[in-house]
Amino acid sequence: MTDELLVYDIAPEVEAFSTRRDCVLPYPVIQAHQTHSVNVAVIDRDDYTREQLEGVDAMVTNLRGVAIGIRTADCLPVFLYDPVNHAIGAAHSGWRGTINKIANWTIRAMALNYGSKPKDLIAVVGPGIGADAFQVGEEVAQLFKQSGFPVDRIWSFRGPRTEGSMAGGHHIDLHEVVKITLTESGIPEENIHMTGICTYQNEEFFSARREGRECGRIINSIKLI
């Protein structure tokens, strides 16, 4: 691995990373055409194309040597590893996926296909937009308030918005929402690892909010080795 990769030390039999800006992938990674759904694909061979994974926002597999990846540029990547049944998962958790608990749907897919138990899983949440930068409109704030998540932990109102900045307005902590989802799904808190990296504030990573929607994408990959 090079310095261009943010490498996660999950387990000796797992290789996982997020790419920094302008990184060249060290090997092929299966990637889907993500649409902010909660659709989870079971990867049972190594030759899936992006076109064959239309509308997929999470993947699970137990194949060794097959890298599955999530594309992000402010959304949160969620990695899952089952050390008992030797299976992995990766989920694309943007604000829509986060509010619809895509991480939980990925855990369910691992349970259904590989017999995974949430109490055994190790989770890593990679770089994504932080609460200070994730300023949202009233309508999005209301969706999170009505979602059943504890409002005092995930939402804050910081006064009148300052035009052209992230000061003021409603702010949502997506990192905390994902962590709550993982714990409510049954993963022990000590098994959940948060990078805490904000892609908006850290220019080593692409950020659609900072650079525009046409910017590059972070590739977040996990592979059994």
Annotate the secondary structure layout.
Layout: E1 5-8, E2 14-19, E3 30-31, E4 40-42, E5 58-61, E6 68-72, E7 76-82, E8 87-93, H1 95-99, H2 102-114, E9 122-125, E10 135-136, H3 138-145, H4 151-154, E11 155-157, E12 170-172, H5 174-184, E13 192-194, H6 208-211, E14 218-224
Parallel strand pairs: 3-6, 4-5, 9-13
Antiparallel strand pairs: 1-2, 2-14, 5-8, 6-14, 7-8, 7-9, 10-12, 11-12
Molecular structure report:
- The protein is of the alpha+beta class and 225 residues long.
- The protein has six helices and 14 strands.
- It has a six-stranded mixed beta sheet. Strands 1-2-14-6-3 form a five-stranded mixed beta sheet, with no helix packed on it.
- A hairpin with a 4-residue loop joins strand 7 and strand 8.
- The longest helix has 13 residues.
